[in-house]
Write a structure and sequence with these properties.
The protein has 398 residues and is an alpha/beta fold. 48% of the residues lie in helices and 11% in strands. The strands form 3 sheets. A 5-stranded parallel β-sheet has the order 2-5-8-1-9. A two-stranded antiparallel ribbon has the order 3-4. A two-stranded antiparallel ribbon has the order 6-7.
Length: 398
């Protein structure tokens, strides 16, 4: 299927569970007039999946915040007619077209609609995705620059037909693609992995938590847009588009990351992920692979032990039969790190493990299978015979 540049990124954004529990990361398509942005989005309409298009330049703020009305001694906001269009299907796309023609007052009224799916005090169904389209202000008369608060609520996608793809579409027909399938439960587990990677990266480069808004880069980093990026990277992971050990990520992955946090932070994060040399945490806990922790960098150790801790917590909640073996592997690896005098790099993951009832459950399991003394000796070596001992008081105090 021939698609314009940006189409695949949009389809992934529409199907990504958002940090606030809605479907879809709000996406803003940037492209010259006549590139088919509107027709592509409206072509995603299906039975039970409506697309409601609003040309922002012909609406006023009350069309997005509600019309104020005095009733029974109180001021209430009457929601606009369009906000009821999704009630039956409980899903669909709210398409805000020609966004750069919206004056600042309308842009301000859109802030809650885009991020919280609220029209005044009326909630849109959680299955309603938000998509906007815009021409760069220098390409339209009387255009408005988007305010930084509005820009920071979007994933920014460059939209363009390349000549060859356009000619092929003319010959074979323009696409009407289906949305990819992403399981929210599996996606939630994958989000944890990418949160660990982003956390480790931002610990090393705290200056990239935020970046300044600029005319050259429509997207800019903030805690909100890093959260968007994490959820989109998890979707890419499930769809086979994310970087893995020995495999680079796709252009779509890079575009989604850059469209959230801007080019500078995106390039730095891609370099960080590319240079990580880590084994699969589950394979490590299962004993299928090994790793020399003394050869890992501090940031690699942090990511690895955080991922191992998350896997242990999952195994404990699922009451896995291999839970004791996995906990033993984890402690043996921690012992090697401590003996290497690098306990500070794994202190936070160890803190989570001691507080998460992991060790208590492992002790109970060891007692059940007759390995209590052996497991207690290992715990004693880790927590009493290494530099980690000085952290125990801090763990208790916190």
């Amino acid at each position: 299927m021939v698609l314009p540049k940006g189409a695949e990124e949009l389809l992934i954004a529409l199907q990504t569970p958002s940090p606030k529990g809605h479907w879809g990361i709000p996406a803003l398509l940037w492209g010259a007039p006549g590139e088919g942005k509107s027709s592509f989005v409206e072509g995603l309409a299906r039975e039970g999946f409506p697309v409601v298009t609003l040309i922002t330049s012909i609406h006023d703020p009350t069309d997005f915040s509600g019309m104020p009305m005095h009733e029974n001694g109180r001021m209430r906001f009457v929601p606009p007619e369009w906000s009821f269009a999704f009630d039956q299907a409980q899903q669909g796309i709210l398409f805000l077209d020609e966004l750069t023609t919206a004056p600042p007052s309308v842009q301000a009224a859109l802030l809650r609609v885009i991020l919280e799916r609220k029209v005044g005090f009326r909630d849109l169904p959680p299955g309603v995705r938000v998509v906007a389209a815009a021409n760069p202000p220098d390409m339209v008369s009387s255009g408005w620059e988007l305010s930084p608060p509005l820009r920071n609520r979007f994933l920014h996608i460059r939209w363009e037909w390349e000549e060859r793809e356009y000619l092929e579409a003319l010959r074979e027909g323009f696409p009407r693609p289906d949305l990819p399938t992403i399981d929210p439960a599996v996606h939630g587990e994958c989000v944890l992995h990418w949160k660990l990677l982003v956390e480790a990266f931002l610990r090393r480069s705290p200056n990239l938590v935020r970046s300044s808004a600029s005319d050259e880069d429509r997207a800019f980093a903030s805690p909100r847009t890093w959260e968007f990026a994490i959820h989109l990277m998890a979707s890419c992971d499930l769809l086979g588009k994310a970087p893995k050990p020995g495999k680079e990520g796709t252009v779509v992955f890079a575009n989604l990351l850059e469209g959230c946090v801007g080019r500078g932070p995106a390039v730095a994060f891609m370099g960080f992920v590319k240079n990580l040399h880590l084994p699969d945490p589950d394979s490590l806990l299962d004993g299928k692979t090994t790793v020399d922790v003394t050869r890992l960098r501090d940031d690699e150790l942090y990511v690895l032990f955080s991922a191992l801790g998350a896997s242990l917590l999952r195994r404990a909640s699922e009451q896995r039969v291999d839970f004791l073996k996995a906990t033993t592997v984890f402690l043996e690896l921690a012992l090697r790190v401590c003996e290497n005098n690098r306990v500070d790099t794994i202190f936070i993951p160890m803190k989570h493990i001691t507080r998460g009832q992991i060790l208590q459950r492992a002790v109970t399991k060891a007692q059940e299978v007759g390995r209590l003394k052996e497991f207690q000796r290992l715990m004693h070596r880790v927590f009493e015979e290494t530099p980690l001992r000085s952290f125990v008081a801090m763990l208790v105090k916190d």
